[in-house]
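CORE FACILITY INTAKE
Project code: CF-77B
Contact: R.S. (postdoc)
Sample description: multi-component assembly, two entities in total
Requested service: structural model of the whole complex
Turnaround: standard
Below are the sequence entries exactly as provided by the requester. Do not edit them.
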Amino acid sequence: MVKRRTDSCRRRVPMCLVAMCGSLLAIAQVPADSVNGKPHEMSGVTVTERRLPVSLTAGAPVQRMEKAELERMGALDVSDAVRHFSGVSVKDYGGIGGMKTVSVRSLGAQHTAVSYDGVAVGDCQSGQVDISRFSLDNVSALTLTIGQGDDIFQPAKALASAGVLSIETGKPDFGAASFRLAARVKSGSFGLANPSLFWAVRLGGKAGLSFYGDYLRADGIYPFEYVNGTRRIKAKRNNSDIQAYRGEANFYASLGDGQDLRAKLYLFHSERGLPGSVIYDNPYAAERLHDRNYFGQLNYEVSFSPKWKLKAAGKFNYVWNRDTDKEAAGMRDDRFRQTETYLTATLWSEPLRGLSFSLAQDFSYNDLSTTLSNCQYPERYTVLTALSAQYWHPVFRITASLLNTYITENVRTGTAADDRQRLSPAVSLSWRPLPSTAWRLRASYKDIFRMPTFNDLYYRLIGNTRLRPESTRQWNVGTTWGGRVSPVVETLDVSVDAYYNKVKDKIVAVPTMFVWKMSNVGEVETVGVDVNVSAGIRVAKSMRFGLSGAYNFMQAEDVTDRDSKLWRNQIAYTPRHSGSGSLTWETPWVDVAYNVVFASERYRMPQNSADNRIRPYSDHSLSAFRTFRWGRHALRLQADALNLGGKNYEIVRFYPMPGRNYKFTVTYYL
Amino acid sequence: MKNYWYKTALAAVVLGLCAACNDDDEETLPPTLPPSETTHGCYVLNTGNWGGNDATIQYFDAENFSIGGDLFGSANGTELGDLGQDLCLYGSKLYATVSGSSKLEVMDRDCKVIKTISLTADDGTPVEPRYMTACGGCVYFTAYDGTVSRLDTASLEVTGRVAVGDHPEALTNANGKLYVNLSDYYGNGTGKSVAVVDVASFTKVKEIPVKQNPYTVCFTGDDSYVYVVSNGNYATPEMPESQRVYATLQRIDPVTDTVEDVCRATYAVNHGNKMYILYSEYYFPEEKRAFALDLQTGAETDFIDLDDFSSPNAIGVNPTTGDVYVADAPYGVNSTVRVYDAQGNLKNTFEAGYSTSKFVFVTE
């Protein structure tokens, strides 16, 4: 009877990179080096060798995609790009308006935090963030950190999850100009129209203001083919349209004396149809979802001296959803409202050369109110304190942190969950056994948990206030190498990581003596290997190939109960083999990129029976683009052909993906 | 040497990409037993997952203790659909309400489809049919548009529809009347009555107040009384006793329409004088029990051990042998059906489909 319907840290990586490649070049530069970077001291250094990407230098698996790479992928939103990261599975309900969530190394979407320009984007109700709502247009880099990252000058919240997807928007590079403008129009199959405008203006020498806005609409009515036994179904997705507005305003200022200030206002409105799963003999779908999200955030950073830095941020986030459906029993109209108030401050110091510490203190307040009957109006106060230390040496670097979490909750009616307190340690090590080479070994460990969400605790009937947090322990060992192989193979980067994860007290809805309840029942053991290879090959002065491939092996098995039918079954929606690849061909006339992602069979239910099997898939796409320049003007044209195979494969069972589709993008820069 | 090395690396990546492009073919359905070739047995309805299109009907040969694969799938070449809610054997035909697919399937005894009746309201919304009862040449079924419909089993046409109340669930017929559970779907205490429909005039005549949330159990006992289980309000220890509504079996006299409590129960099934009861309250786990109630003497005898179950989801009695079938539907796996004799001794166990919800026995 209960149907459950459920949904930046501007990382200081560039400086860090400069720092790291310094060490690659010559030991002589070491004194100037630190993990958090000292650009002033590095400014005199002429870097003749390529900067090694952070993915090769970090003590834990870190993957990063920059703007150029994101653009040539033909991806529309953040989720399309994130699929190419290794060790990641994106749960995609299909179509432009379909929900998309990201899970790292089979741990589940609720263990992956998403941060937008340095501040976490939370959802206290479901615990998972729909990343389809972030446009890629305005994004300058995506970084995925698994486990313990190297940057210790971070808010405590950045340490509070098993993986962090960090979305960074660009700070305009004015050069000699006083303003920047980018106007873009995207159009494509299934009624896609997506104009956007970016405008940035310099305010004096040390401040800037930028605005970004876009509008997106799509009918989303795409044809699909299905097989029901021996019958072939040809139909179209219906009620799959979307209309969305996004707007963002940013203000930056350097206040002098090493002080930096950034402010951001963000707005997102959307209305979309939810087509639901394909139901045999019943194509009806009328569920509509309205979303409104506003947030404002303020970041302040100050360097007191080369040895002392402080940063602080505050954010207020407001999320409103309305979910309606026309059902046989009448109109359903549910509304949800949540807010988050978040404050953080981090103090960093390097008392001795190479040895740094940080202390981060976060506070957040969340509340939820719904129009569902028996809504308990829960509110949560979270206090996070993180103490981190790092020691850097030309040959190795070690980072350790300890996070303390304290949570208390109130409800207006009924009983609130008990207060909780937990300590979560993490450590990572990166080692260069042969200082003359770029070969590194790394190892990391992290013990972290996710809190039960408000749905887990307080959802009508099914919620359970006695839940314990779902805990994860992650171990990773890996090796990386990057360098130049020959005059032709200009760059070759390789990383191989093996990992072991253990999830305990997994929170799942289970039937317990006639009643479905959220319970801590599961234990999952994951063993996996991630292999990433990328190479840049120059065949002529103006012709270059870029090649990259990622392969992941993931054995994520249920180890809850030896006598159960689920013992050692691969957990739902987790492919044993998956990966991605890309090939780019840069010529003076046009640049061409080919991308592929693939996954082996998965199961939609915990039991690995043939009935539950979802077939393997591969998704291929091809993009071609060219930029024309005259004077200060530039015009970029791009054409993308997506899902070339044309198959309506499924990521989520009974949610067919769109077949072959096309997209055209015209961008004008000034 | 260096050249060779990177060429090999390239080749490995390219090969890896190509190897991933192969798709497998569809699987074949497992073989199944034709019910017509057995002497007695039972149809097993597996509801499946919400949105999973995985409802199935199996046949259990009670003579040889063997279970077949999906009978519907092999007889028709297509799947039954989403959420098989109820199964009814009446005359020479089988009827299945498929709630998610919003249809009624009329089948012969080997599950071969005779007619598929798609069920939508006048405005096109699927009505989500729920439970059935049959009498006088008609099959009556509830639906989430708040109605009971009448299907003429000769013409296989829906010949009438009557509004009964919000979210009607299980129903039965007795003394020329239909008794329809009006559930407490929204959990706000408004669903607490049984609607009465006069069969001859096919009009709703009244509502009988019962305890909160009469849901999936409503049947006519061998003693001609109507038995209804109200699931209550999922009482918690924090609630004062006066606010708690425990899951309760009630009995309605179809002549006077008076209601009396029988005992606490979550599931109940009747065979002669015996009522087999499964009972549990989520927040009072120590109270869970399974027992057989003698309807004449009121004596209770312990039956099976509920600790053997994760979550019982269906109970049925084989009228020929008196064996009791109990389906256990644990999280994420296919159901296990345990077959007990009338004293509660385990005779047999078999695996069914996902979320087994009904046993329909075939007697010669």
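Facility notes:
- The CA atoms of residues 590 and 626 of chain A lie 5 Å apart.
- The first strand of chain A starts at residue 62 and ends at 66.
Invoice: internal transfer
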